Amino acid sequence: MHEWALAEAVITAAQQVAEKEKLKEIREVNIKIGELQQVEKDILRFALAQLKPAGFKNTVFHILKAKTRLKCRVCGNMWLFRKSKLDEETAEAIHFVPEVAHSYIKCPKCGSPDFEIAEGRGIWLESIKGVR
Amino acid sequence: MDPRTTVINERLRRTGRIIAVSSGKGGVGKSLVATTLALALAEKGCKVGLFDLDFTSPSTHLIMGVKNVQPEEDKGIVPPVVNGLAYMSLIHFSGDQAAPLRGADVSNALIELLAVTQWGKLDFIVIDMPPGIGDAVLDLVRFVKRIEFLIVTTSSRLAFETVKKQVRLLQDLKVPIIGVVENMKMDKATDIEQETGELGVKFLAGIPYDSMVEEAIGDVAKLRGTAIAKQVREVAARNIIQ
């Protein structure tokens, strides 16, 4: 369960923000997950619930999925990533390390593997809300 | 914020020492030194991980003849054990395909693997770095608090001049340097040894050119008998395990 390692990172990062902002209690954690990494929302939510330490007792985790936009550096074409276009093995490789998308995906317009992941790569901590 | 960077040192908490094998230029035998160093430490009974961070030109899997191994998923990614080493490489995910990564992609892939790899309890992680002083070096220094470097050069002035720049950078960043290995030595000249000393860095070994190395690629038993493996074994015993 790769999602556990990412959940642990979210909790640790939220704790660090809370400490910096002097929050006694964290009420809300807003997480964005880019489609490219194909993080399983339910597994992530379960892992967050299992891992949450004191100070997170009443925390609500909002997990928002974000579309992945890829932009070709050669021809400027922008397109949306679609998991359905990949075989299972390739999708799994990209799930573990999204950058290997460059090994398997090419610009649909010009065929170049030199593209930018403009939006929706992986996990991102958007914001946290709490009580001082 | 990127949450992944906050767990990197936790993932490496149960590892004794983390040694980045680096070079100023490519083609000096850095991957061979990294691989034989990891094997030498394991021969001494240490628990060792080998991490190939040369994402765009990985070669440790070719050196060890790695085939048909995959990491397992268990609260992260658990590296497979190859020749007694916990072995992590981007090739587990990219296979034989080219991985054309730009700087930001290298950083992202590096952070991802550092954040999700569950190494377990190890005495050493040996890292095969990409050559030069680019993103991978700067990111490792930034994120891995206990990193140490071992630098590989050849006798060539071209290779050693880039080593000087790397040494100065690491000294400015206050990163420990175990020393410099001079590989593929063709004569008995001592100028690299002398100049390494002038940089305030230990000269670890001068390894003679060994024409048998190419034949040993992909065969760990043969590799263990090469001049490079023998010399690196001595470096490990003398300068690393102590």
Description of the structure:
The complex is a heterodimer of chains A (132) and B (242). Chain A has 132 residues and is α+β, with helices and mostly antiparallel strands. Chain A has four helices and six strands; from the N terminus they run αβαβββααββ. Chain A has helices at 2-20, 41-51, 88-96, 101-104; strands spanning 25-34, 60-66, 69-72, 78-80, 115-119, 123-131. In chain A, the strands form two sheets. Chain A has a three-stranded mixed sheet with strand order 2-1-6, with helices on one face. In chain A, strands 4-3-5 form a three-stranded antiparallel sheet, with no helix packed on it. In chain A, α1 packs across α2 (41-51). The two termini of chain A are 34 Å apart. Chain B has a single domain (3-241), classed as P-loop containing nucleotide triphosphate hydrolases (Rossmann fold, 3-Layer(aba) Sandwich), CATH 3.40.50.300. In chain B, the strands form two sheets. Chain B has an eight-stranded mixed sheet, sandwiched between helices. In chain B, strands 3-4 form a two-stranded antiparallel sheet. The longest helix of chain B is centred in the last third of the chain and has 16 residues, at 157-172. The chains are: A alpha+beta (132), B alpha/beta (242).
Q: Beta-strand percentage of chain B?
A: 15-25%
Using the coordinates shown, work out and report the CATH topology of chain B.
Rossmann fold
Amount of helix of chain B: 40-55%
> Helix count of chain A, per DSSP?
4
- What's the β-strand tally of chain A? 6
Quick structural gist:
The complex is a heterodimer of chains A (132) and B (242). With 132 residues, chain A is of the alpha+beta class.
Pick out its properties.
heterodimer; A: 132 residues; alpha+beta; hypothetical protein PF0899 fold; three-stranded mixed β-sheet; elongated; B: 242 residues; alpha/beta; Rossmann fold; eight-stranded mixed β-sheet; two-stranded antiparallel sheet; 40% helix; globular
